[in-house]
Amino acid sequence: MKEAPPPAVPTSGPSPAAAPACKAxxxxxxxxxxxxxxxxxxxxxxxxxxxxxxxxxLSPETLKHYAQFIKEEVEGVRLYHDQxxxxxxxxxxxxxxxxxYYWPLGSSKTVTAWVPLVxxxxxxxxxxxxxxxxxxxxxxxxxxxRESDKHVGAAVEAGGFEVVGGPFELxxxxxxxxxxxxxxxxxxxxxxxxxxxxxxxxxxxxxxxxKNDNQRRDSRDWLPGVRPGEVCAGPNNPVIWQRGG
Length: 245
Description:
By secondary structure, the chain is α+β, with helices and mostly antiparallel strands. It has helices at residues 40-49, 60-73, 146-158, 213-222; strands spanning 8-9, 36-37, 51-54, 82-87, 94-97, 110-116, 127-130, 163-164, 173-177, 182-184, 193-201.
């Protein structure tokens, strides 16, 4: 992958103004608007491996504050391709897959932020990445499920890809490319695994003709009014960062 993420990683979250009924105390600062600088070594690691996990991007206080809005007001808030991924106690494993299979997007200039709202020890099923897999087609045309688990899992093993995982402390955030293959174990704990994800794309990203039912659904849900060949500049897709801006 030739492109690199911007030198400052944006973070996103629901605004307190969108949930006036919630009486949670405000966090001590405004960390969602503070950039997280990346070193040259971190950028090179992301380009090589297709993912990176950063320690302490958000404080436990900030996550606790915004978790209340997400839980209480989620039915009234809809942000472009932000998703709440809550895996219940006993929830099954997440098969091998890559996210960009689902997106009708014209380039690989995408990145997903995986933001746990709780600590994710091994028994809650943290993400696992196949390092460097974003550069290889290990099953890009296969949707998530038993087939992808079998096909991609075999390709990861045959190709000798290192599988990198490990627990997430509260405040840790990982970022992965749209073509990076990843999975997660089942949640064997007695607690929910609560995670928010935010998907970012190039400002000039062009929508492509959907290639499968999942992409057709995504085009309707996340790119309303945008047609194939047009820049993904719909009402749900604000520019949240630009160089020199």
